[in-house]
Design goal:
This protein is α/β, with parallel strands linked by helices. The chain is 37% helix and 22% strand. Strand 8, helix 8 and strand 9 form a beta-alpha-beta unit. The structure holds 2-succinylbenzoate and magnesium ion.
Amino acid sequence: MHIERIELALLKLDYVHFFETSFGREYGRTFIITKALSEGLCGYGEVVASAAPLYSSETTETAWTILKNFLIPMVFEKKIGGPEEFYRAAKKFRGHAMAKAGLELALWDLQAKAAGVPLSKLYGGTKTMIPAGVSCGIEDSIAELLERIAAFIDEGYPRVKIKIKPGWDVEACAAVRKRFPNLVLQVDANGAYGIDDISHLKKLDGYGLLMIEQPFPPYDLWDHSRLQKEMRTPLCLDESVLSETTARQAFEMGSCRIINIKVGRVGGMTEAKKIHDFCQSHDIPVWCGGMLESGIGRAHNLHLAALPNFKLPNDLSASNRYWKEDLIDPEIVLEKGGQIRVPGGPGIGVNPVEERIRRATLQNEVFQGNSG
Ligand code: OSB
Ligand code: MG
């Protein structure tokens, strides 16, 4: 395909309810929507970097700069026509995984639309319904956390994850487990602990957790392996797994038994599929993480989660768990059995509503390729 034009838009959307992790509390999200245009078709992607470098070192501003000064000029100069070619060419630039992923996703959507097939089909997806899950932030009190979880269970969510941090961990798990003895429950620390916390973290073995996600910071694969040796509960790595290589290293060191795949964190769908395939051949179950995406990013995640080794419930919730009004039509809904349907139309299979995108846009820029 000849890419004629690429567009970036910086958006701000407010959450329906604040979201607090071990990094702090947020009331909304700034993020970038990418578009790649060719022959009357438009592919959409989402850059999941946030305003501040908390989850990873990228921000919306670093991503914008890298896209504008390096990745977009590369597409036009090298006449890059598709996502896999883009992945290979973008490898020469170090880091900036979320910026790369955001543009690669738009190229994937464009390619699938040109072929007239859903993205999941291009990826080798085998599922049409995806087990949902909901990620619950830290609340002002345990009572409020329990009420929120009860409401999510009533809506039909089959799995709940709660965010933990020092001071909001054992007590929160004990209270949730007491009120919901049969709930499929997991926790996520976003790297808030350190090697000195091993004996404290071992207390979490008592609550029947499906997994403990990312107890230590991103670069501590070795310390995770020490913790995993001392715990019954499987550890799951999120922030630590940046590529197929780190997935293999985590596996070889015994740093985790489960991997969370996020397309933004690993630098695109091509790398995400490599991690998926590595894990499949080594019997490591994976699941699809989320970054509180708009419906555009979440539709991309649904197509990824259709791959066969996504064997655990995902951080994929309905549009109304995140936004008053999502950017897409129809919105993503929770269906019976606590599942979400993989959109069946070409590409991402959902329609971004341009008017809603415009209303949320703070800044935008159009990059024109040379014709012919
Ligand atoms: O660690 O999984 C995480 C949101 C922002 C940053 C990091 C994380 C999360 C979530 C949200 O847990 C999951 C979702 O999108 O539903
Ligand atoms: Mg996580």
